[in-house]
Amino acid sequence: xxHLLSAKDLSRETAIEIMDTAEGMSEVAGRSVPRLPALRxxxxxxxxxxxxxxxRTSFELAAKMLSADVLTFSAKGSSVSKGESLKDTxxxxxxxxxDAVVVRHAASGAPKLLADSxxxxxxxxxxxDGTHEHPTQALLDAxxxxxxxxxxxxxxxxxxxxxVLIVGDILHSRVARxxxxxxxxxxxxxxxxxxxxxxxxxxxxxxxxxxxxxxxALEEKPDAVMMLRIQSERMHAAYFPNPREYSRFWGxxxxxxxxxSDDTLIMHPGPMNRGLEISAAAADSSRSTVREQxxxxxxxxxxxxxxxxxxxxRESQ
Length: 317
What we know:
Blueprint: H1 12-29, E1 43-48, H2 54-65, E2 69-74, H3 86-95, E3 100-105, H4 110-116, E4 123-129, H5 135-149, E5 163-167, H6 174-185, E6 189-193, E7 209-211, H7 214-218, E8 224-227, H8 243-250, H9 254-259, E9 265-267, H10 280-284, H11 290-316
Parallel strand pairs: 1-2, 1-3, 3-4, 5-6, 5-8, 6-7, 8-9
């Protein structure tokens, strides 16, 4: 695997290989000394043009647990804030000997541009580009579902027949897009529930079932319900009347929580707006995978970096 730019581009076999590798990585995280020498001598650069806490720290921890050297760049406080272009930044990183660049950018397609440009000879991982994709989030979500639903040894298995309902701000969510493509690749049945104003154009051509009523969508007994954050920072118009009305019609409140099956998973990519898209009771219930998703994110990102950079190491020997 040279780059990871899009969940849509992942084959079923590659996605399963990443999840299977993450199973082994999760065991490493539980050791008293959670470290492997697999990427010793490799340099991973964390290049974030947008603010991030979970994703950035997760990637950095994953790289360090594999014994890689980690360099952190952020838009604030670096040459990027002074107007340096992506090309100039990439060439600077190339001169530093970067083996992998984990990039988050506000512009959709920026990681692909970096990977295809020839500016840098390093593997590129898309950590979120605009409203386009966030492939490692989709991988960790699929991994979290597989571990809960396919309890025990799930190695080698996909998600055939699993029903996943994604709720909320689909329009601005790169997480939703990546999950839709990856979950379909893995055999899951994906449904969306959202107001019409928060659905992207052309959604009728996507491999999903669309609901305009959350309660009716929940009547189909999904195996997992994934609530999305309202991304107010990307909203430049009135997509719904007010937060109270949104919560009433589209939030996973206590009443809807009690109506779910006992084994229905509750998911959220974070950060959560408690009381808006999800109630505190739902977020903290035993059915919630929110904390597991954070922990599984480290395992998935370890797997991605390992498969990307250990392969490059073998090819160079």
